Amino acid sequence: TARDLSSSMGHFWLEPLSFPGLAVAVALLLLALCLRSWRIRRPGEPPLIKGWLPYFGVALKLQKDPLGYLKFLQKQHGNIFTVLLGGKYVTFILDPFQYPLVMKNHKQLSFDVFSRKLSEKAFSIKKSMKNEDLTHELHVAYQFLQGKSLDTLLENMLQNLKQMFEPQLLKTKNWNTAQMLTFYGSIIFEVTFRTIYGKIPAGDKKRIISELRDDFFKFDDKFSYLISDIPIELLGNVKSLQKKIINSLRSENLAKIQGWSEIVQRRQEILEKYLVQDLEIGAHHFAFLWASVANTIPAMFWAMYYLLQHPEAMEALRDEIDCLLKSTGQKKESGFSLHLTREQLDSLVCLESIIFEVFRLHSYSSVIRFVQEDFTFNSENGDYCLRKGDLIAIFPPMQHSDPEIFEAPEEFRFDRFIEDGKKKTIFSKGGKNQKFSFMPFGLGITKCPGRYVAVVEIKLLLLIFVTYFDLEIIDKKPVGLDYNRLWIGIQHPESDVLFRYKAKS
Ligand code: HEM
Question: Any stretches that span the bilayer, and where are they (predicted)?
Fold first, then answer.
């Protein structure tokens, strides 16, 4: 419908044009749209599905029910086919045994063309993305999101949570009502910012962090439009929000913040070494900040949402946490005195299983590659010609929702990732182990480097809320997914959910 169409394009505005001017602009636009859709399948190419809408192709159908529609196309056309989506031709590779072929052909199937375009539009990172040495050094620096550095991040995160919770939240002795996504979003933004970028000096602290957070969420609300072809200038105030956030993360402003994490220190050194332009440095910090919270927030929302809807999961989790606290001699009653190591967090198999089950159900992180040159994809099921300029997509939710790998895949089962009291890591189909059955963080060279931080952070927050608070869901109606962020991580809920909390007495 026209409404769907306008929402899938974004609510943008145009400068008023005179009538003849407008008519010519519309005619040219329609011509351009039709030309983009004018493609005929060449011999050897995968089946081509263009839909009936010029330019948009099957975008609306896919957005309405991505899994249902892709499974329908898979039944009709097999494991490889090309669809027209918002002016782009995307070839889906749905057979997991062919994933390694996509990952290993770096030269023909490039990941950086796609991510460079996104970084330029969404975060205003311009020249520096083309500098291979810089990109390489930034990648090497991701080691500071693992190992010993991760232990330090965990310690600092606990400390920050203590400072954030003690003055206020832990004193909430009467029921307080809040919207769940907004509530956890705000906590995650603040604790992540403090842990990664450090503490804003007292005085202006509250104002600065809440202003940055508000701007960040307003920007993030429009993120799905940033991966479309709509120029950023047509997205209302997104450009000015982007400028404002980048400005607050420039070296000069970051220098006022104390306690940078190792990853930020190292990134800053590398950025200074290669770049002269301070705004470009701010843009890199913005991209990293976005990556560090954008997916953790909806993941935390869903974990809490399912826990509150599934008393059996809550009970199992409470037992597991009680056991750990007892065995480490920690008492719940003595204020916020928790001390946890990464090994202890790691031993909580039920907690991890709950989080992984949320990822399985709601991570739509896709692996996207750009076809750099015409290329023949030699697979076991035949050879396919891929066309220069098209995109290739691997779509993990197809495995996550395969009933032969995960029984009753639509159900939330808190213990799905537990077997004989231990973590279950291998899943099979038809008797064969499936290496690519669970891919919430992408694959290969572009796999998320922050995945350990994300899991530690969600574990810590769930543990704290379950230990120190009484929690109840108020809106009991089931909540569906909003597929606006189809390719980019954990999906948001269709609507926020009312819940209430109070500190345990
Ligand atoms: C549940 C939470 C998270 C999910 C589902 C997630 C998912 C992903 C995915 C799928 C990618 C790859 C995108 C691509 O193929 O281009 C990615 C990239 C990235 N993620 Fe995460 N992520 C999460 C949390 C985090 C956190 C907490 C951090 C940082 C502390 C982080 C830092 C990054 C960075 C820096 C990249 C870009 C890597 C590059 O330069 O290639 N992520 N994430």
Answer: 17-35, 287-308
Q: Are residues 350 and 387 in the same domain?
A: no
Please determine, for residue 3, whether its predicted confidence score (pLDDT) is greater than 60: no
Each residue's pLDDT tens digit, 185-200 = 999 999 999 999 998 8
CA distances from 436 to 94, 138, 178, 321 (A): 11, 27, 38, 31
Separation between Cα atoms, residue 127 and residue 73, nearest integer Å: 40
Instruction: Provide the mean pLDDT of the chain.
Output: 90
- Report which protein residue has its CA nearest ligand 1's atom 31: 450
79 is in an annotated binding site: no
CB of 433 closer than 8 Å to CB of 426? yes
DSSP 17: -
pLDDT at residue 19 in the model:
62
ipTM over 0.90: yes
Q: Taking phi first (over 0 means left), then psi (-120 to 50 degrees means alpha), and beta for anything else, what does residue 55 get?
A: left
Q: How far apart are CA 392 and CA 89, in angstroms?
A: 9
* pLDDT, tens digit (0-9, with 9 covering 90-100), for 167-221: 888 888 899 999 999 999 999 999 999 999 998 877 777 778 899 999 999 999 9
Residues 321 and 465 in one domain: yes
Residue with the smallest CA separation from ligand 1 atom 20 is 448
51 plus 183 within the same structural domain: no
Are 141 and 282 found together in one domain?
yes
Ordered DSSP codes for 457-498: HHHHHHHHHHHHEEEEES--S---EEGGGTTSSBPEESS--E
Domain count, the chain: 2
Q: Which residues line ligand 1 (CB under 6 A)?
A: 115, 145, 288, 291-292, 295-296, 299, 363, 365, 367, 440-442, 446, 448-450, 453-454, 489-490
Looking up residue 295, the CATH number of its domain turns out to be: 1.10.630.10
Q: Cα(2)–Cα(20) distance, rounded to whole angstroms?
A: 23
389 and 340 in one domain? no
With vertex at residue 181, the alpha carbon angle to CA 157 and CA 423, rounded to the nearest 5 degrees, is: 60
Q: Which residues contact 94 (CB under 8 A, 6 or more apart)?
A: 70, 74, 79, 80, 395, 398
Does 78 lie in the same domain as 170?
A: no
Residue 407 is part of which domain span? 132-363+397-438+440-503
Residue 8: predicted pLDDT: 39
